[in-house]
Amino acid sequence: MDRYKISWACYLIGSLLVFGSWVSIVPTWLGWIGWLMALAGWAVGSLGSRNQCRIERPAVRPFSKAEEIAKLDLLRKEDVISEEEFQAEKRRILNER
């Protein structure tokens, strides 16, 4: 029996015991045990959901040196960075990797 079937069984039986205690079919102490069973069933069922809900993100492709320099050139042409800043960053890009 897999974990999800056990989880649902505990949750269902526990919930029925709680309901039974509300309508006086079972004693109150058995209703509390049902509440704990339902809680345990929910907890066991939610353990695996963290790994299943992960969204696979595409790998981030680093920009090539030419692309980085082209972006810097656009920033320079729009007067966001100065010529000196452009040259310094260009040297840094060409010297790394």
Q: Element order, helices and strands?
A: HHHHH
State the shape.
rod-shaped
How many DSSP H or I helices?
Answer: 5
What is the total tally of β strands? Answer: 0
Number of structurally distinct domains: 2
Question: What are the segments in which pLDDT stays under 50 over at least 5 consecutive residues?
Answer: none
Termini separation comes to: 53 Å
Give the proportion of residues in helices: over 70%
Beta-strand share of residues: under 5%
Largest sheet: none
Task: Specify Rg, calculated over alpha carbons.
Answer: 31 Å
Structural class: mainly alpha
Mean pLDDT: 83
Summarize the structure.
The protein has two domains: 3-52; 65-95.
Write up this protein.
The protein has 97 residues and is an all-alpha fold. The protein has 2 domains: 3-52; 65-95. 72% of the residues lie in helices and 0% in strands. The protein has 5 helices and no strands. Helix 1 packs antiparallel against helix 2 and helix 4 (65-77) packs antiparallel against helix 5.
Key descriptive features of the protein:
97 residues, 2 domains
Q: What's the helix and strand layout?
A:
Elements: H1 3-22, H2 28-47, H3 49-52, H4 65-77, H5 83-95
Helix pairs in contact: 1-2, 4-5
